[in-house]
Every structure is written in structure tokens, then in C-alpha cells.
Design a protein that fits this description.
The chain is about 25% helix and about 15% strand. It has about 525 residues and is an alpha+beta fold. Strands 1, 2, 3, 4, 5, 6 and 20 form a 7-stranded mixed beta sheet that branches. It is globular and about 65 Å long. It folds into 2 domains: about 280 residues, FAD/NAD(P)-binding domain; about 120 residues, no CATH class.
């Protein structure tokens, strides 16, 4: 190993909320930490447009995420005052603007001694000695300079699972078959989300398809803080979006059968073309804008093919393609002459925000990578662990580190196929169905073979289970556990798989993490 190699107790790859929580947790306990992020900004999706926290049962999500929301609440209280509309819109800190999320994360990191941060870097390779990760090579994306980093423990906080792959850890990519784990909703599937039933075309076969990637937009409703699209984006093709006309005519842009607040449902958008988006109001004239996966005109399926295993140039090309597709949809809704004028008027209430993403043309920096590689770990979380399937009791684990609580929710895997008239293939919108709060074992973060590595984001689950666990609040809980576990591994000079679980759980409990739940 080169004498120029830098050394840290803990090396965290990925400035996602899960990665940040890992870095903060380890540093607060006294470990020296290096945090490496691909982009120029930290915070992943939470600081790149996803301002509506995906939490159904807030009392089950504690620890660093709860601290994050309390700091967020205080920010909006200090900024707008109690009783103000903007303070009310922050929903006790669970709803926020991207720039404020980045600010809060920055404060939490800045308060920690012993964290070194490198942005705009990517991993190029990992050195494994005696089946344990010993060092990683990272490259400065601006200068192409490579440097080697040694560590006692490495944490993969990337959405893509790039570190685990570089280290040679076994992983899954794509969808398991029904037979693999006996999961009813596994594999190729057409699932009627309104009636909660399987449709013709469902085979349950395994494949390498992934849920669609998009961007999560932050749009402004204030004219003085808006940057309207004045021309077609690059590679604009109107035909990409004309399928939404069929959705409108067929009633697929109507309101949901079961209307619930805080799910991006805006009644003024029902039965309009603007239902191509799911819009949630945020403080300060901002909105969290997701792409609605239910219309058959949804054009984003299959656009991520080749992304996960692609080189940097391939990923950059897919970034641009999906960015242009998102901007094209916004432009289409605001300007296309075939769209009813009243619908265009609604769409023109929303524009890119002048004060967000100011170094990226006011567009989010982070692609919404909903699922990529998934570790093959010491335990694999499946649909049976997270649902009432088979009438089983909630799974109990001796190494529980967090509670998962979000319903199964996976975006389509394919574009509209011939004969599709209800739902796109792969969509699992099960927001009102069988998922129940469940315990998450530490073992899903530990590779079967490779030592010195903890994986809190691209964790060991099936495709179906991943669609529940893949929420930033849950990932922050797993990241916090990973950071504490890494510190304990250094402290006790043990591989992460052999740390004293009781000590890990004791620290988590002390830090406010929820470890127990009853469904009765």
C-alpha cells in the first residue's frame, strides 16, 4: 500500500441521508471519518427535491432523522414565526425546501469533530485483503486525480451500491421470481392498485428490470421566485407525452379511489393533464413534485437501462436523458396547444425556483435512483417480513436496529405495452394494503463474505421488500446504526459482523432510535 495512502477509522461512500447519518453517528462517538460524495452537494434526494418525508407513522422513526425534523421545525419557526402559514406547511419539520435540508445537514456535519468531506469524487476501485476491504481508490471528477484511502471500516451509503460492487460483495440486480422467496408480488407483475388484484400478464418471472428513475422536482408558485421554461428542452419530442391524452379521456387522471392527505393529491388537478404530476405544497411558495406513476402515458420506464453498471460517461448520458424527459414533460404541460387552456393555466402556476439549485440551472442535482444493486447479506428481508402475508406475526429479530413502516411502493418497470389498459407493468402502488410496521435486522447490512463493510442503503432485501425500506427516513435510521456499528468495530477491533449487538442496540436506544413495535 502506498505511503501516500490516507487513513481514517471509518470511510463513508455516498452523501445520501443514509450516508450522512452514518458519518455523523460514527464521528459523534469519536471515530475519524471520511465522507465521499459524487456530486458537489450533500443530502441526496432530501436536498434534491424530495421535500415531503416518506413517513406514515412518525412515532416509529426516531434517532437522527427525528433530530433532523426538529431542527427543520425550529428553522421554519425562527424564519416565519408560530401561527404563520409557512410554519404550518413545514408539518413539524417533515416538509422542507431542498436548500434548507442541505443547510440542516451541513449544520449537523459541521458540529462534528473528525469528519473530512470530499465532494465531486467517485470510487474507482477497492482493495480487498483476506476478504476484508482495506482501502479504496477515489477520483476527483474535476482534476482526474486519484488517491487511495485506507480505513478500518467502510460504509456504502450510495444509492447504487458502488462500493459493495467494487469490493466484490455479492449483490442482486433486478427482480426475483415468485418462486425464489415465495413472495406473491415478486417478478413480472400487473397489479391493479385500485382493486388490489393481479391482472392478466402477471407471470412472476424474474428479470433484470428496475423501477423507473425520474427526478423529484421542486417548483415555485411565486412569480418573483420563478424561472419559467421559455423554450423546449434539449431533445424535446412531443410524442413522448401524447399518451397522457388517452389517460385523460379514459379517466386515469382522476382523483384516487381512496383519498388521503399528504400523498401528493391536489384536488384542483384531478381530471386535468397536470395529474401527470403529484404535487405537495411546501413552505415558502415551494412544492414537492413527483412524477405520477399511474397514468399509462408515464414515459420513464426502461430509461435507466444500463445505468447501474455503466461507467461515468454512461451515467452522465442517462442523467441528461432523464433530465430532458422531465423538463420536456413540464414544458409540454405548460405549452402544448393540444392541452386544454385551463389545464395549461394550472401548469403555468409552477416553475423552476430561482433560489434553488442555483449552480445547476435551478434543476435538482440528484437522479431519483429508486433501486439499484441490493446486497446479498447475512439476512435477506422479504415481502413476508414486512406484510401480513400468511397471517404471520411480525418478525422479531435479536439484532433489530430500526423499524420499517412505509407501504410497498415501486414504480413501473416498463413503458406501456400492447394491451395495457389499467396499469403499467411492475407498478406496485400498495399504499392502502398489507404492509405493517416491521423490525429491521442488522444482518441486512452485512455481506455474507466480505468483511470491513457495512451497507445501510443498498441493503439485503428482495425487490418487493426494498420498495418499502427505500425511504430516506428509514435509510437514515439504518445509516445511524451503520455508523455506530463501525465505531464499535474499531473500538473492539472486530469485523462489523462480530460486534456486540447489545451494545449497538443500547447506544441506538440512548440516541432515540425506535427498536420495538407491536402491531396489536
Amino acid at each position: 500500500m502506498s505511503e501516500e495512502t490516507e487513513r481514517f477509522d471509518v470511510v463513508v461512500m455516498g452523501g445520501t441521508p443514509g450516508g450522512l447519518a452514518a458519518a455523523i453517528a460514527a464521528a459523534r462517538l469519536g471515530s475519524s471519518v471520511l465522507l465521499v460524495e459524487y456530486h458537489d452537494h450533500l443530502g441526496g434526494m432530501s436536498s434534491s427535491g424530495l421535500g415531503k418525508s416518506d413517513v406514515e407513522k412518525p412515532h416509529l422513526i426516531g434517532g437522527l432523522f427525528e433530530e433532523f425534523t426538529k431542527r427543520m421545525r425550529q428553522y421554519y419557526l425562527d424564519t416565519f414565526g408560530e401561527g404563520s402559514k409557512d410554519f404550518e406547511l413545514c408539518k413539524n419539520g417533515y416538509y422542507f425546501e431542498p436548500s434548507v435540508a442541505e443547510r440542516i445537514f451541513g449544520e449537523m456535519l459541521g458540529e462534528c469533530e473528525g469528519i473530512t468531506i470530499l465532494t465531486n469524487h467517485r470510487i474507482s476501485e477497492a482493495r480487498v485483503e483476506n476478504e476484508s476491504v482495506a482501502a479504496v481508490a477515489i477520483i476527483d471528477r474535476a482534476s482526474d486525480r486519484e488517491r487511495w484511502i485506507a480505513g478500518s471500516v467502510f460504509i456504502d451509503g450510495t444509492y447504487e451500491g458502488d462500493l459493495l460492487a467494487a469490493a466484490g460483495a455479492e449483490f442482486r440486480l433486478g427482480r426475483e421470481s415468485r418462486e425464489a422467496f415465495g413472495e406473491p408480488h415478486a417478478g413480472e407483475i400487473y397489479f391493479d392498485y385500485q382493486e388490489a388484484k393481479f391482472l392478466p400478464g402477471t407471470t412472476g418471472r424474474a428479470d433484470d428490470r428496475l423501477p423507473a428513475y425520474t427526478y423529484r422536482l421542486c417548483l415555485s408558485t411565486l412569480a418573483e421566485n420563478s424561472v419559467p421554461l421559455t423554450s423546449e428542452p434539449e431533445d424535446y419530442d412531443r410524442s413522448e407525452y401524447t399518451g397522457y391524452f388517452d389517460d385523460l379521456a379514459a379517466g386515469r387522471l382522476s382523483g384516487p379511489k381512496n383519498w388521503k392527505p399528504d400523498r401528493g393529491y391536489e384536488p384542483a388537478h384531478f381530471d386535468t393533464m397536470v395529474r401527470a404530476f403529484s404535487v405537495t405544497t411546501l413552505p415558502n411558495g415551494k412544492t414537492d413534485v413527483n412524477i405520477n406513476p399511474r397514468p399509462l402515458g408515464f414515459p420513464f420506464g426502461e430509461e435507466n437501462v444500463g445505468y447501474v453498471e455503466g461507467d461515468d460517461a454512461t451515467r452522465q448520458a442517462i442523467f441528461r436523458r432523464i433530465r430532458n424527459l422531465v423538463l420536456g414533460l413540464l414544458y409540454f404541460l405548460q405549452n402544448d396547444s393540444g392541452i386544454p387552456e385551463a389545464h395549461r393555466a394550472i401548469a403555468n402556476q409552477y416553475h423552476l425556483p430561482l433560489d434553488e439549485f442555483t449552480d445547476n440551472d435551478h434543476f435538482p442535482f440528484q437522479l431519483y435512483v429508486r433501486e439499484a444493486r441490493r446486497l446479498v447479506g447475512e439476512y435477506t428481508l422479504t415481502e413476508h417480513d414486512i406484510t401480513e402475508s400468511g397471517g404471520t406475526e411480525i418478525g422479531r429479530h435479536p439484532d433489530t436496529i430500526a423499524i420499517g413502516e412505509f407501504p410497498i411502493d415501486s414504480f413501473p418497470c416498463r413503458k406501456k405495452q400492447p394491451g395495457d389498459d389499467i396499469v403499467l407493468e411492475g407498478y406496485l402502488g400498495m399504499l392502502d394494503s398489507i404492509t405493517r410496521p416491521y423490525e429491521i435486522p442488522y444482518r441486512i447490512m452485512i455481506p455474507k463474505v466480505i468483511d470491513g463493510l457495512i451497507v445501510p442503503v443498498a441493503a439485503s432485501t428482495t425487490h418487493v421488500a426494498f420498495s418499502s425500506i427505500r425511504m430516506e427516513p428509514t435509510w437514515m435510521c439504518l445509516g445511524q446504526a451503520a455508523g455506530i456499528a463501525a465505531h464499535l468495530a474499531v473500538k473492539h477491533e472486530l469485523p462489523p459482523r462480530d460486534i456486540p449487538i447489545s451494545e449497538l442496540q443500547s447506544i441506538l436506544a440512548r440516541e432515540g432510535q425506535v427498536l420495538q413495535h407491536s402491531n396489536h
